[in-house]
Amino acid sequence: MSFDWIKIPQALLTVFVVFNFGLLLNALIAKIAARVGRRQGIPIWQNYVDLIKNIGQRSLITHGVHFYLGPVFRLTGGVGLLLFVPTIYGSEMFSNLSFAGDLILALYFVFFGTLGMALGAAESGHPYSAIGVSRGLSQVTAAELPFALAVFAVALQYQTLSVTDIVAAQQGGILHWTLFTNPLAVAAAMLSFLGSMMRPPFDVVLAPQEIPIGPPTEYHSSYLALLQTNRAIFPIAKIVIYMNLFFGGAASWPVFALKVFLIYMVSVFVGVVFPRFRVEQSIRWFLIWAVPLGVLAILWV
Amino acid sequence: MGLFTPDRSQYPAEKVDGSLDIDLSSGKYLKLWQGPQHPGITGNMSVELTVCGDEVVEGKTHVGYLHRGFEKLMERRSFIQCFPIVCRICVPEPDFNEYCYAAVVEELAGLEVPELAHWIRNLILEMGRINSYMMYLGGQAGALGMGVIGQWTTYARDLMLDRFEELTGARIYHMFILPGGVRDRLPEGFAGRMEETLRELEDIMVDVEQTMFRNAVFKRRTVGMGVIDPDWLEPYGITGPNARAAGVPRDVRKDFPYLVYPQLDFEPVTGQDSDIYTRADVRRRDVLLSVDLIRQILARMPRGGEVMTRLPNVLHWKIDPGETYIRGECSRGEYGYYLVTDGSGYPRRVNVRGPSYTHAMALLERMIVNVNIADVAALMVSLHTYPPEIER
Amino acid sequence: MKEELQKRVVKGPDGVEFEVEPLRDYYCEALPQVERPAYAQIIEDLFNWARSESIWILGFGTGCGAIEMRPLMTPRFDAYRYGIQWRPTPRQANLFVISGYLSVKTLKRVIRSYEQMQNPKYVVGLGSCTINGGMYFDSYNTIKRLDQYLPVDLYITGCMPRPEALLAGFLDLKKLIRAGKADGANHYAENFAWYKANQKQVIQDWDMPDYNW
Amino acid sequence: MQTNLLDIHARLQALLPVGELQTQRADLAFLDVPPSLLRATLLQLRDREGFTHLVLLTAVDWIEQEQFQLTYLVCNRSARLDLGLRVRIPREPASMESIHELWPTAATYQRELREMFGIDFPGSPRLDEDFILEGWTATPPYRRDFDTLKYAEETYAERPGRVTYDPAAHMQQQLYPGER
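^ Those are the sequences you sent over. The predicted structure of the assembly is below.
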């Protein structure tokens, strides 16, 4: 099997574009949330400044080897997710390193970051980190279940494990999207999406009022900068998967930006006005509402 | 609620003196400090939690981080010198200190306060009550992760602070109610601007009700949580909204009327269920009651008259021996001053009785047992305690 | 020394016995290091600009001034516009706002939180009580000069300072940071012995190691 | 019929040799009680007379008479009456019976009195833990013989330039300069 080496710089270019897009989008979302609170909100470039500042902090404290691995794994989760999924459909340049079975790999990468944080947070020795990570792992597990079910439903529906093929099958009009051909799977997946975006009502993992601020309590300076980078890339990468699987993918960057923004807004709309669930309440919520939808979606196919 | 049953079988045994036998080195329990450097704490205090899994086994309140020794400082200040420092005892609602101190000195010194000053004092106390409740509502929502309510209510509080600024010239520490009366009359056109503020406030309260009190997740987190048994009211000395949410109409404004409350038309707000939700709801309705009271006060207030009685030379002001206690209903419960004089120019002893004293110490330590870590912040905020008045 | 800080042998949940020495295990006794600007001037300028535009305040309301911090973050004053925001953990915060009087008990916690913050870090003293004791000049429980115990970059006067004064103070702090003059952390490390001596003089119950980040 | 404080006092005096009633207001009076009778009086007031609410428990230092006065203020919410019980105990050694079984919240007050006045309440829970102060070794601060200004000047560094005036002398200087 021949490998096209030009694909690597091309994929890195995608990462770069998505990184910038993510930073700006996060600031925009923060501004929108601020408008709900009648504030003006942060400047749109604030995330860049924060990032530079955190890199520029002088002291670095380590708590051991695994402490380094936390942010690194987390960032690997985000970047890896993005690298193996085609970002722009039909574009040779931005289809990244996608291959025939990339859907399974993507599912794995979604979970990867949280596991990495578990390593790092446990090593940091802070009780709040430990509590936050145990909450995070249990909640992510519950939230991933409906998503995995929805992905199986979609894979069964299109009889393929390649994201590119799934996108291809959805071309040719809005009614070909999975959103309309398999609404149950989309519903299950969107509920799971709410749970994995770290916004209320499912942000008990980070809850500053109880366990400030959960897993990253001890992370600072460059470690925090890595986590911030991931915070820009990971939601976008995750939305890219959703977009590809359920909303017909994107054929160009403007369409990509619009669709990502709209999907992101779903979680923001829900998040702004809700308090957060306790972790066992959110798990129960996923099991009662999202998982049956996922099972039905598989049966539907 | 299934998972968190109050099954005490796997809990630590009690020792002879009633404390729990917790062996930290067994690895079964974890000691967590919530505070003082912690966003989920009401002010500068801390709760030492011993948790087993996700559940709190034992909680101990630690205060003293804000202790300035007011009661000692007042013993070496003359009666008029005490007046500017008393408001600093309780930061979010300072006016009650001013009122209680003024009233307690007036009673022992035998001063008569002009009628208009009573009305203005009452107006200020109700305005301060709204401010305090606004802080509470934001904090209660914030403790459950709903930051937007805090934005709205703090905005409403700023509106009310504007009126304070217009009336007294200061935002937080007003130093307006002094022994013998108040410093000044209402400014020209104050009632109209107050009415505008009240309307805006009511709009915000409608928003708050819609997003907070009708929110399914908020209900899920608060209904049935942190119940105060009505039997606890007497042993723990619970007053104010915490008692009213348990269905007991205990309100100093009604029971021991002071200022012009006898002339105002109101009924204490009560609730039934005594959980976090009810306590929040009682306070929300109390805000609306205060809005109503402010309207009544502004409408019925005498149009003219003196606001200050003639004081003796304050630099050589001596008060005959005596002791008394004055109470008022602040936003958290019964607020009182106990003053002992010995015939000199200085108070012999001042004791400030803040409602947080009992709520945050004995009551919180009892209620916090068996609660999920995630609910500790919400429970603590729902008791509405302000640390500065615990330790003074 | 408190009982829980003493050296002892502990039996773990798996039955293995091991020795615990809390002062050594739970705290780090390495002294703070002076960390000078390490890069070329142009990069340091960029960093200083970023530091000044992204001020993260530690969420620790030490005194009554904390009540004006909430309006600062809400619609009327909205300090987020200037890149100012809260961080709940000292590891990620740059600015410690000492909001008013400090009782001795709080001072101990403040020192600990301050030492956990990362270099460069700044301290702003709020209100007259941090400057000369203010209203509490004769109190037996509050300190009178904050700069004896922590390196202070800026004082904001008032009792208590209004949010407008706070905003103006933060803008002044930005100028200091941008000029590279806000170097309190290094000053603290250089004069560590002097600061510790002052701190130990007022804190009677000194049961922690000298440096505990 | 509305109960009033005089009736209650008369009923109380029939049972226990308590002191005279000193009426401050229609709804507030103070009563001297010997230390040994305090518990019985409180029980009688709480269980028979409806004074179920312990408003405050505090101490006054009468250093001239070498005595502490403990004030137990109890309140009858339904009859709207307050009664303050004044108990005089010797200053050295200061010790008083604990009432934390009657009102659990009294334990907090007793902890504060222990720390601030040095009054001992044997049996009260967590009495010797630090409550407000931490590692305090000097005289308990609320005692009259503790000079807070002197302590503050000795302990805490002062910023040079701060001046304190005596208000009376200062105003005299301002208003009538030249006069001594």
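Chain C touches chain A at residues 33, 35, 38, 46-47, 50-51, 53-54, 59, 74-75, 78, 80-81, 83, 85, 87-89, 91-92, 94, 118-120, 185, 213 (CB under 8 Å). The longest strand of chain C covers residues 95-99.

Shout if you want it in another format.
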